Amino acid sequence: MAVCLGINLKPDRELGRGAKLGTMALVADISKWKLGGAIWIVGMIGVLAMTFVMLPVLISQHPQRAPRVPVWVALVAASAQGGVFLALFVWGGAVFSPRVGLRAPVFEALIAGHSLGAALLPQLLPGIIGGLAAAIVPWYFTSHGLIFEIHTPQSLLVAVLYGGITEEIFMRWGLMTLLVWSGWRVLQRSHGQTSSAIVWAAIVISAVIFGAGHLPATHILLGHLTRSTIASVIAGGSVFGVIVGYLYRRYGLESAMVCHGLSHVLAYAAHRVSSN
Fold first, then answer.
1. What is the DSSP string of 54-109?
2. pTM for the structure as a whole
């Protein structure tokens, strides 16, 4: 009887241990979905602002490039496309960021029911300092007509919502996280803490891509691209991207968002002062 009990109890214990591990994995998956969902919802605010506020302005300013379908159809299609792409980048960040030590502390606190202020406070000052340092980039670009003219409250709102929030989700949470994870997975074979060289390579690569990503909008505004314009846009965007990339790695995603959004506010304020 004792032998029989001993034989029967061992599988029961293993089954209980397996069920516990399975439950923990399920909770982790649910948390990733919640985290991703929260980030996606916030990011969509920027997508909708860009689509329904800025695009109509661009279409009216450049009627020769207007879509061949009704404007409202083009806007709905653009917002849907943006939402799909945003979901892919959000999913990548939610899956890979925990594996390489990258975080979004405020969003994590939101889904965990913890204090949002406590999660934001350590990121706030670095983000503000970064915004002060990085503000020269959007100021230079807008003053030279190389990116969207952030000269009205309406355009500033779009710059803060889309640039400060959605672009950081795309470029840092999504792209940079994927680059860091890929380097860690391939070069370190998923062993140990991610090396500084891999992290900095990801910061620089994502920053250059961020800078190059502004070329299509620059082409729309200017109607052409010269070598000096291309070099200026990529170089300026890369410097900006390195600053926010470092903040993301060192402090968290929200620190990069604070820096990015504040830089546009400061650039707008500098323009208003200089134009008066």
1. IHHHHHHH-GGG--SS-HHHHHHHHHHHHHHHHHHHHHHHHHHGGGTT---HHHHH
2. 0.86
For 175-212, b/e burial (b = at least 16 CB within 10 A) is bbbbbbbebbbeeeeeeeebeeebbeebbbbbbbbbbe
Domain boundaries, the chain: 38-51+83-275
**Residue pair 158/53 in contact by the 8 Å Cβ criterion:** yes
Say if residue 43 is exposed, middle or buried (CB neighbours under 10 Å; 0-12, 13-18, 19+).
buried
Q: Which of 207, 208, 202, 213 is nearest to 178 (CA)?
A: 202
Count of other CB atoms within 10 angstroms of residue 241? 29
> In whole angstroms, how large is the CA radius of gyration of the chain?
23
- CA dist 170 and 241 (Å) reads 12
* Euclidean distance between the first and the last CA atom of the chain, given in angstroms as a whole number: 94
User: What percentage of the chain's residues is helix, strand, coil (to nearest 5)?
Assistant: 85, 0, 15
The tens place of each residue's pLDDT in the chain, 276 residues long, gives 333 333 343 443 433 444 444 444 444 565 889 999 999 999 999 999 999 988 877 767 666 666 677 888 889 999 999 999 999 999 999 999 999 999 999 999 999 999 999 999 999 999 999 999 999 888 777 766 666 566 778 889 999 999 999 999 999 999 999 999 999 999 999 999 999 999 999 999 999 999 999 888 788 777 788 898 899 889 999 999 999 999 999 999 999 999 999 999 998 888 777 776
Find all residues with CB under 8 Å of 41, minimum gap 6, and list them.
Answer: none
- Judge whether 93 and 107 are in contact, CB under 8 Å: no
Contact 46, 165 (CB under 8 A): yes
